[in-house]
Amino acid sequence: MSASLDRLTDRQKDCLRLVAQGFTSKEIGRRLGISHATVDNHMRAALEVLQVDSRAEAGRLLTAAETGQPLTSQPPPLAQPPELAAIQPSAEPTRRLWRKAVPPVGGTRNELIVEAKIFAILRVAALGFSSLAILTIGIAGLLWLLR
Fold first, then answer.
1. What pLDDT digit, counting tens, does each position of 73-117 carry?
2. What is the DSSP letter of 39?
3. Helix or strand (DSSP H, E) at 141
4. Residues 13-32, buried b or exposed e (16+ Cβ, 10 A)?
5. More confident residue, 75 or 45
6. 10 Å Cβ neighbour count for 147?
7. Of 6, 76, 91, 117, which residue is the least packed, with the fewest Cβ within 10 Å?
8. Phi, psi of 10 (to 5 degrees)
9. Cα–Cα separations (whole angstroms), residue 22 to 110, 115, 122, 133, 145
10. pLDDT at 53
11. Of 109, 117, 123, 121, nearest in space to 44 by CA
């Protein structure tokens, strides 16, 4: 892993350190005096070098390597919110499927790379278009039956 960390540029490391502190691309850009698009380009290249999927994971890798802390295979588990703990296990598979189909509303910061954001936008557009098409066909069918 240290070999791949050595392949990162100084600017990529600067961006990763700030990501590990929880800053967004715009905030990182302001701090480093570069545009947020340039930050995203540095992050995309760093993700490829480190072969990880998220900015947060890349930031944790760099921080752990620089502080000398060993990484565990999994990040520590997050506490479950009370409303999720009350969900019955039988409803869980449907809930997971729904969460994958539709992006979350509000809440935590979006750590997706640009391509993943575009894919999520296209998923929402396809869902909206298909809902509108089904509604239109349903109303047209009802009107045809009533004439």
1. 555 555 555 555 454 555 455 666 666 666 666 666 677 788 888
2. H
3. helix 114-146
4. bbbbebbbeebbbeebbeee
5. 45
6. 5
7. 76
8. -60, -40
9. 11, 21, 27, 41, 57
10. 87
11. 117
**Whole-number pLDDT of residue 81:** 53
Find where tokens 């997050």 sit: 78
- DSSP 3-state percent helix, strand, coil across the chain (nearest 5): 70, 0, 30
Secondary structure element (H or E) that encloses residue 31, with its range = helix 25-32
Residue range 128-132: average pLDDT?
96
- Spatial distance between the Cα atoms of 99 and 87, rounded to a whole number of angstroms: 14
Residue type, 132: L
Closest CA to 34 of 60, 12, 7, 6: 12
pLDDT score recorded for residue 3: 73
pLDDT at 14: 92
Indicate the CATH number for domain 2-67: 1.10.10.10
For tokens 């990880």, name the residue.
Answer: 52
